[in-house]
Design a protein that fits this description.
Length: 389
């Protein structure tokens, strides 16, 4: 069925009403001023040359309430802003086997909102918000109580949180670019057995927040240029049994901020030119840091406890000044990555002005000779002499 200004069927709502199950509606290029479009039967809506669906700031544009729905190739603009309802450009409610792809979303409140929907895919969409304040902006892609969903190759910017998950398990987040968002590039809570690969999170207000979840895999992602007093490349809060492998943390205030997170493997990551590469705060046990590169960070590790149950083994530290007499590629002198000056700065932030001063060198040397504030066993006994490739 074709929909256009000169066709027999002139509106999307009319086309849905006339369509039989599993029909394809071909929406011709044009401007369709419609909102509250409800797809309540298995259909494919396919745009030709990106027809514009203009919600005129009056509310939600498309709502899917059926299984087996595809929406492809539309340009959705002007979602209504509300302080009581989370209006979205496209909302999927209690649906199975959905596909949302090749959309362009602009001038939005929420972008793509999945609510209690499973076994679907959000693919190759471009979400361009113009959010200014958190209180009157929404998220780019949001999943709530939704499982077994793939979110792949989307570009999200200018919203509150780029990608937000809550109570959503078995989610695969791949190849997305989430930048210049007000708060987080990625934010998820209470979402288990999820995997995140090859994503870029750059220049977001507070970086990335990962909270209250378990069995998470984060592989080959880039966390870059997340600066601010409360900004992190990634915040881990009460995360257990996870793998953080092959990621790049570059030019963040804090590369990874870890709170109450246990049994996590940090391996093959690059920490480059961060303020703090890794900050460990409170009750973090049985974590391992192996084969990571710590390059040109102001502070490599910050630690706020006198007890250590974490292992640092065979990492490369650009600040390491030891030697390798037997030429096996491993330093003969252990490296202590926690500097006393980082402890001082955590307690009294104003002292950061003394960074790279002789005073800093003196107190760090004294702590290295006789550790008082840092755990005796917090060291890399086998530091690499060359950067790990």
């Amino acid at each position: 069925m074709e929909i256009c200004a000169t066709c027999e069927v002139k509106s999307i709502k009319e086309g849905i009403a006339f369509a039989a199950d599993y029909d394809t509606l071909l929406i011709k290029k044009g401007n369709y001023k419609e909102f509250n479009i409800v797809i309540d039967k298995p259909l494919t809506l396919k745009g030709e040359n990106y027809p514009v669906v203009d919600g005129e700031d009056r509310g939600e544009i498309i709502r899917i309430v059926s299984d087996n729905v595809t929406v492809d190739g539309l340009y959705l603009i002007n979602v209504g802003t509300s302080y009581t309802t989370d209006h979205a450009a496209i909302r999927v409610v209690k649906s199975e086997n959905f596909l949302i792809q090749n959309l362009v979303l602009e001038r939005l409140f929420f972008g793509i909102y999945l609510e209690r929907s499973n076994n679907g895919k959000v693919y190759h969409n471009k979400i361009m918000g113009d959010a200014v304040d958190e209180y009157n902006s929404g998220n780019g892609i949001q999943l709530w109580y939704s499982n077994n969903v793939v979110v792949d190759r989307n570009i999200i910017q200018g919203v509150r949180d780029g990608i937000y998950l809550e109570f959503s398990d078995e989610i695969a987040i791949h190849n997305n670019i989430s930048t210049n968002n007000l708060r987080y590039g990625l934010h998820f809570m209470f979402s288990n057995n999820d995997i995140y690969t090859n994503n870029t999170f750059e220049n977001n207000g507070a970086g990335v927040a990962v909270m209250f979840s378990k069995h998470i895999k984060m592989v080959n992602n880039i966390f870059r240029k997340n600066w601010g007093t409360a900004a992190y490349g990634m915040l881990l809060k009460e995360i257990n049994d996870a793998e953080i492998i092959g990621n790049t943390f570059e030019e963040n205030t804090i590369g990874i901020n870890i709170e109450g997170s246990n049994r996590i493997e940090y391996k093959d990551n690059d920490f480059i030119s961060n303020g703090w590469a890794v900050k460990v705060l409170g009750a973090c046990y049985t974590n391992s840091f192996t084969n990571n590169n710590f390059l040109y960070n102001s502070f490599d590790i910050s630690y706020n406890s006198k007890l250590n149950d974490n292992v640092f083994d065979k990492n490369y530290w650009s600040n390491y000044t030891g030697y390798d007499l037997d030429k096996d590629g491993i330093g003969d002198v252990p490296y202590r990555p926690v500097k006393l000056f980082s402890y001082v700065v955590n307690r009294t932030p104003e002292t950061i002005i003394l960074l790279r001063s002789m005073f800093m060198d003196i107190i760090d040397f004294s702590e290295k000779v006789s550790p008082v504030f840092t755990p005796d066993n917090l060291l890399d006994a086998m530091p690499l002499m060359k950067k790990s490739e």
